[in-house]
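Revision sheet: structure tokens.
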Amino acid sequence: MDWKSKLQALSEGHCSKNNDPENEEELKFFADLYSKGKGDIKNNASYKHIPRFYYRLPNDDELLLQKLREESRAVFLQRKSRELLDNNELQNLWFLLDTHHTPPLIGEEQMIGYDDFKKVGEMSGDKYKHFFTSVVFAKLYQQDPLGRISILQYFNYVMRKVWLHQTRIGLSLYDVAGQGFLREADLENYILELIPTLPQLDGLEKSFYSFYVCTGVRKFFFFLDPLRTGKIKILDILACGFLDDLLELRDEELSKAVQENNWFSAPSALRVYGQYLNLDKDHNGMLSKEELSRYGTGTLTNIFLDRVFQECLTYDGEMDYKTYLDFVLAMENRKEPAALQYLFKLLDVKTCGYLNVFSLNYFFRAIQEMMKLHGQDPVLFADVKDEIFDMVKPQDPLKITLQDLINSGQGETVTNILIDLNGFWTYENREVLVVDPGMDDDV
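Predicted:
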């Protein structure tokens, strides 16, 4: 008999005959308490008014319920969209703020006091009222001696809030499940449909769209889905700065330098994909360990590359473009916790959650071997080990955890020393390179 049946039998006063008298008495006592409690709940008037808080999601075969859910969500989001301020209403807000500012000016900047602030709120109407609260005013107050806030700063605040709500509604339209998350396919659809609205991507060939979308989506998932669940919260997307970088491509006059530093720009996406094609010598669309060894300056150690192919998703021992993007994001952002988490997993050869002397020696031996091949005198491991522990200052003097590495701010330097001959050489000659920054070009 399962536990549900037992509980039901108890509630009806039936007890097993196999119980001894003591246990039987306990069970009867429990049955009385259970029946009394159950009866009290059902007889309580408030029991009938408890709101429903759980709604079952439609199953895959319940097409009508799925369609109804989608349509109701679309109507809800449209209603929320109509509640936002449009361009004309924002212009009207600026006119009212400009007309009712509180003198004197600070330089050329207009200010507004709390009384005038509330007056503008009353004149604006109900649609604006949540922007004219004491909390908002206090949040933007910057120690003005007359107790005022900057009109420009306030207007930018309102603009930012409106943009965030617009973007949240836009992203929610792609949330098929309606649970506040986006899967990879959802975010891919969002970015794909966003491309025609971004002037900086006008020159992209349509045949490259799928690779561009993959490149853009991987950055979101690499940094916002560290547990690799396959979905990320819409709120996390809004909170990070990646969406700002993507929508920055609406600016038709974006400088070349800004584009090169923006992962989502056409030059950046073409650079990453071009590197992948150049590494793929046999043109089979995948990268072998030998092909990946030429990444960057071509000085990554074989031990590290072995670990990449052991831990990362591969197909018949070769790496596809999506896995390559994760690798590039880790290598190019080694100051970020997500990148250090990726690299730490590779360095933790014993999967024990920390790096010890054995782990450091395991990787540094490959650096020493590469130094010999290049005719350089190998550096003693003992010296390097001491320097690493001194830099990181771990809580346990014999173990370096991921959190130690992140807290130290030296994660990029430590990984350079252990996986890349050029990175180690740069670290060893850092004092010389400060005097002559061009010397590392000869390595």
